[in-house]
Amino acid sequence: MRNSRGGAEVIGIITGTGLYDLELAAAEAHELTTPHGTARLTVGKLGDVEVAHYSRHGSDHTRLSHQLDPRPALAAFAELKVVSLVSTTVTGAVDPRLAPGSLIVFDDLYFPSNRLPDGALCSLFTEPGVPGRGHWIFDGPFSAGVRDALVAAAFGDISDGGTYGHVDGPRLNSRPEIAALASAGVSAVSQTCGPETVLAGEAEIPFAVLGFITDYANGVTDEPTPPAVLGRLLGESSGAFSRVLAAAAPALDAPHAPAGFVYRLG
């Protein structure tokens, strides 16, 4: 890792449904203790690039979306001083122009509740007087440099931009709920990346979300996505994510500007 391997640059990758393990060379498991708890990361090489990988659900999907606390992992990535961080997520399309089986790199966020799955407000600044506390101020919530690296790595086979909508799990959303999200300009939804975006912003980590469309959300099309198609695309998502991450790794392995800044107090 960065502090134990001669100061080498490290990129961070968070994966979820469909991609539980990365094929990293010389992979080693690490436990990092942070003020927010312990994070279990796997550190190894993706090509020539050193990677710290966090599987948000666990290797056998032990944790459902409502059982996650992303704060330890994001605090660990901040301690490692990762130069870039990517989260992958399978998503349901709210915009009917997004075809199942396609990739998307988001450029905006819809997460009005700003809460973690346990109902707590989403922040790394959990205690009064904590050093570095402040307000995350931004125009767009994702790092332009990290986004560009992902888009370039997909060789044009990707939607460049769109609003990520964070929804609570573990159930999926009703037709009226999806219609409300569509009216707010949401492009696609999933249940995990809203808090990760906010926490990365507070930690000033250059961050972006790479999505894979597995289905249309309820009411977007006259007929729901057939279960067989959904299952097939969930299976295909891991290969699509892996190809883009491997191709993007060299460009991610360089300093990138985070989204916005934290106006720090005290």
If you average the pLDDT, what whole number results? 95
Radius of gyration: 17 Å
**C-alpha geometry:** globular
Low-confidence stretches: 2-6
Corresponding CATH architecture: 3-Layer(aba) Sandwich
Provide a quick synopsis of the model.
With 266 residues, this protein is an alpha/beta fold. The protein has 5 helices and 13 strands.
What can you tell me about this protein's structure?
With 266 residues, the chain is an alpha/beta fold. It has a single domain (11-264), classed as Nucleoside phosphorylase domain (Rossmann fold), CATH 3.40.50.1580. The protein is 24% helix and 28% strand. It has helices spanning 71-80, 144-153, 175-183, 193-202, 227-252; strands at 11-15, 25-34, 37-46, 49-55, 84-93, 103-105, 108-110, 134-137, 159-160, 163-166, 188-190, 207-216, 261-264. Strands 1, 2, 3, 4, 5, 6, 7, 9, 10, 11 and 12 form an eleven-stranded mixed sheet that branches. It has a two-stranded antiparallel ribbon with strand order 8-13. Strand 2 and strand 3 (37-46) form a beta hairpin. The protein is globular. The protein starts with 10 loop residues before the first strand and ends with a strand.
Task: Summarize this structure as a short list of keywords or feature phrases.
266 residues, alpha/beta, Rossmann fold, 24% helix, disordered N terminus
